[in-house]
Amino acid sequence: MIRIPLLLTVALAAIVTTAAAAGAQTSGKVLFDAHCARCHNVGGTGGEGPNLAVPVLRHAPDDESLAAVMRGGIPNTEMPGNFMLGDAEVTSLVTYVRSLGRVEPGSVPGDAASGKSLFDGKGACAVCHIVDGVGGTVGPDLSSVGVLRGTDYLRESLSDPGASVPEKFVNVRAVTRDGTEVEGVRVNEDSFTVQLRDARGRIHSLEKKTLRAFEKKFGESLMPSYEGQLSPSEIDDVVAFLTDLKGER
Amino acid sequence: MNVVRRHALSAALVLTGILGDAIGVGAQVTYERLVGASSEPANWLTYSGNYASHRFSSLEQVNRDNVASLRPVWVHQTGAGGRLETSPLVVDGVMYITQPPATVAALDVKTGRVLWTWSRPMPASLKTIGFPRTNRGLAILGESVFFGTLDAYIVALDRATGSLRWQARVEDNALGYSITAAPLAIDGKVIVGISGGEAGVRGFLDAYDAVSGERLWRTYTVPGPGEPGHETWEGDSWRTGGGATWLTGSYDPDTNLLIWGTGNPAPDWNGDDRKGDNLYTCALVAIDADSGAIEWHFQFTPHDVHDWDANQIPVLVDEVVDGRARKLVALANRNAFYYLLDRTSGEFLLASEYSKQTWARGIDESGRPLLLPDTTPTEEGNLVWPSLQGATNWFSPSFSPKTGLLYVAVREMGSVYFKTEADYEPGKPFMGGGERALAGDEAAGAIRAIDIMTGETKWNFEQHSPPWAGVLSTGGGLVFAGSGEGNFFALDADSGEALWQFQTGGAVRSNPIAFEIEGKQHIAVAAGLSIFVFGL
Fold first, then answer.
1. N or C: lower Cβ tally within 10 Å for chain B?
2. ipTM (interface pTM)
């Protein structure tokens, strides 16, 4: 039996309480890095396992089901259960994993209602983007973009769309054996084939070895820059509108 | 015993008479057959094809001229969950596979129809710390097939019926010990490696009597007090030092040496409390198969802090070096360097960089890496090539004696390495950090042909993403490989030119094999959760 002086015990308790108050997220991150990051990556951005930095987890729509997945795994997948975790640890992990897909909006100076008008009107954004089931399909669905992306990213996407193009929207140009040029976004690719979707939504399945030219335009986007097209305050308004898009219908 | 054996023999003769040549089960898989595995290419008798681990088939019916006509002959959907990484065995008309979490199945090689299955139920408390719930294959000797389980048992099953002959607990799964590797069967013994390097186990290699299941010896890969190499561990860190033996090694029948790779020291990414070289982690050890004594060792990555296990398949070759015939071992290491050693002594002969790396200036004359500064994991993260999964990993390379080339599936990928505190608790993760791997278009893969004697890259076939599938080369001048996107494909062994590909519809995370069905060459590979068999 090790005797700990009462004062020290109180001091230790204080430290523990302070640490707890610092947020379950801190310990959740430590646990996540130890148990989950090997497959899901540090930050939960996905690797061998799926990206967890998304607003809705397919197998865990709420905290209770997320805790169940952590404990029991997902049958018929590579996700193992983890009986080693205690209740407190699962709670911290759930809090941390839930935080991964939510980006703090920070202060958004613009007006969201005005942003919506610009999105549908002057900016013509809906020609290419779906929001809540309505809009075009050339660009990514933006229905949950407010929980996926921060304001800095959204602002950059409007002024410099090529700076960070999502993997499924890399612009690709191919020239087939008969000289036909095909341009579109890369929907899928393997070592031998590539599937493109052109501006009209048509899918082109191409065998790489038959192509005369095949170019992935990293750093380029089909989306035009809105710098100069919209005023700085109008861009603020669109960013405010996008930040409000949480995928809730 | 003799009487019983005679009766068994008579019974077998009678049965053979009844069954005719239906299925050839009954012909003993003797040690002599295993030694000569390369000379009976109709079968695939051991994990890597032969004791030298060439994963080469001399069959040449399928070749450069006709491989474009290769097509699936049958598909067996295992119905298993998880990850199918099995490398099948084919013996006298029967294909044996393992499937997760702990099942062996015997299939009719002509049709894929199931002959028998056997499963060991996994306890709800099963621990697999730091690796997926998978199994990579099995061994065969005499009348038994042998496989290891996730809860760290070694099991012997009757190969004709799947009946349990014996099972033995290798170690305590509650401490994180587990088995995913195929055992290696040699003369009367089954050699078993273990996993658990992310749980702070003390690694070892075991030998079991193939008939009785009795343990014959255990050799720790982390030396205890008084043993050579113990001084390379600080304090008590050796007790939780890792050095798992989690893939199948090679065997040289002439010298009776097992040549086996060892894994990372534990904790993986935080080496603060285990200062020193940490022998024999991230090394090859040569172990006398009778006594279990370590005859020599060669450590590739001293005091590793990137999880660069050296469990990759050691490939044994006999070549002339400077006018002298030598017995060699070649290994494309997870740390991005290719090594050639003398396998009788462990003498270092050469190393070359075969994949992008940013951690070493090179390898010195003794085989020790010359470290670059600021390449260890930090709290903020530190970008280093290769990733913690390495420039290659568990999936097998292949050596073709016809081309003299070692074909390696390469992962061109970097990682941001993080370091955190690591406190050992029995049966819990003991890693001390993690990684954020470069993904998507920032990572790529390749099949690379390396001259086994010079380490020079002869050709390179680019892959869309870093692969998790091994390589098979054949006498028909082909190299078979797979991709994470489901492609199973054939390359020209001389040039790397792609000659054929088939979309399996599921990630290929396994090693291909070749064999014959009624005199015709076939190729098998696991993809998704199914076994595919291809033929002309």
1. N
2. 0.83
